[in-house]
Design brief:
Elements lengths: L4 H32 L2 H26 L4 H18 L8 H27 L5 H29 L2 H20 L16 H18 L1 H21 L2 H8 L4 H25 L5 H20 L4 H29 L5 H29 L2 H23 L1 H16 L1
Helix pairs in contact: 1-2, 1-5, 1-6, 2-4, 2-13, 3-4, 3-6, 4-13, 5-10, 5-12, 8-13, 8-14, 10-12, 11-12, 11-14, 13-14
Length: 407
């Protein structure tokens, strides 16, 4: 327990922040819809997230790798808490979108900063279990967060819920300050301009990518899987309503089944994390995710769609833990912020392009065809990822078979 004192403290901060994130999302949607009376006003909120990633990821890694990550994480929590507390006063003006964009930019910086801190802070042998526990906390927040938001709406208003979210971020920031400080980041040559530093960091990431081609190919393949899930999820409601002809309540059950599958997968993943290798988790988990989407895309009614949702969400818990552990094991902590930010920029561009492409395809061709085509592409990507991630295993098997044959 003494060994896990600080990791559990870190998990507590992450859990509070995750629950608050769900409260913030639901409350802000309701406030904007109530003030503007337009679904388009809510859609813009979702567009701001990838836009924030595009505006941030080009330079954020250069900052993350050069500052104390614990202090940066706490500062980002406090900064986002203040901005969220300001949102209720701006809900009737366009300024609300500017503030939400800045909040999303802070969130885009927080993830690579936290990953770099976790990699340095958590010993190598404990990282997979920590990532599994973090996934379990995230799945719990997925179920608990909306429920707490509903209770807050019963006790007060969505504005009250936003204030509670701001308080949650402040609490998360305070907890973060109790964690070990660790070392500061790499120094900056004072003779260089900020633009020269960023350009040199881009070159450094490019050089590392060439030296660690195998690692970065797996990284990109998994990133494409995430891009495809985001794009296909954008048609989830339309597919369920217009193709499967589900009612609003039945569609709600479908989403609940997905949440339940993720929770179940997270629990099993956390309990077996010390027995499973992260490369197998990432490869086989990703393959099952695409299999779940394929089942869902060919479904004709609720039952098969529910099975597909359960499979993909269950497998996603394993795939995510495997990828995060792979990322921590194969990318040096001192350059992790820059690598994550640069490739996050690519991922943001692909998310926007693929979502637009799939949306236009759903309008011009058919939703069913686009979802099936996207699921088939995802399956092809994950087959390559599965084979590549288990390359060493297959090579050992071939050598063993060859030795047996020669004997």
């Amino acid at each position: 327990m003494r060994k896990w004192k600080y990791p559990l403290l870190l998990l507590a901060g992450i859990g509070i922040s995750n629950v608050g994130g769900w409260i913030y999302l639901i409350a802000l949607n309701l406030i904007v819809l109530d003030e503007w009376g337009s679904p388009l006003a809510v859609v813009i909120l979702y567009v701001l997230k990838p836009v924030a990633a595009l505006l941030t990821n080009g330079w954020a890694g250069s900052l993350i790798d050069r500052v104390n990550k614990r202090n940066l994480m706490a500062g980002l929590d406090f900064f986002r808490g203040v901005l969220i507390a300001v949102l209720p006063f701006l809900s009737s003006s366009w300024w609300v979108y500017a503030v939400v964009l800045i909040i999303n930019m802070g969130s885009a910086m927080f993830y690579p900063a936290s990953m770099a801190y976790i990699t340095t802070f958590i010993p190598r042998g404990n990282r997979q279990r920590f990532n599994a526990l973090r996934g379990l906390i995230g799945s719990g927040a997925f179920l608990i967060g909306p429920g707490i938001a509903g209770l807050m709406f019963m006790m007060g208003t969505p504005t009250f819920a936003l204030y509670m979210n701001a308080l949650a971020l402040f609490l998360s920031g305070v907890i973060t300050l109790f964690l070990p400080k660790l070392e500061d980041g790499i120094p900056v040559d004072t003779g260089d301009t900020k633009w020269e530093v960023i350009k040199e960091d881009w070159r450094m990431v490019w050089r590392f990518s060439w030296r660690a081609t195998y690692v970065m190919v797996l990284y990109v393949l998994f990133s494409i899987l995430i891009v495809m899930t985001a794009a296909l999820d954008s048609l989830e409601a339309a597919f369920s309503k217009e193709v499967l002809h589900l009612s609003n309540s039945t569609y709600g059950y479908l989403v609940s089944i997905a949440g339940g599958g993720f929770v179940l997968g997270s629990i099993l993943n956390a309990s077996l994390s010390h027995k499973l290798h992260h490369m197998h988790l990432m490869g086989f988990g990703s393959l099952l995710v695409s299999g779940g989407y394929l089942i869902y895309s060919f479904s004709e009614g609720f039952l098969l769609a529910a099975i597909g949702f359960a499979v993909l969400s269950f497998a996603l818990a394993f795939a995510t833990t495997g990828f995060e552990t792979f990322y921590q094991e194969h990318i040096p902590a001192e350059i992790m912020g820059r690598v994550a930010s640069m490739y996050g920029l690519l991922e943001g561009v692909l998310v926007i392009l693929s979502t637009v492409l799939i949306g236009v395809g759903g309008e011009l061709v058919s939703i069913r065809f686009v979802v099936i085509a996207g699921s088939m592409i995802m399956l092809g990507i994950t087959v390559i990822l599965y084979i590549s991630s288990n390359r060493n295993y297959w090579e050992k098997q071939l050598r063993r078979n060859s030795e047996c044959y020669n004997k």
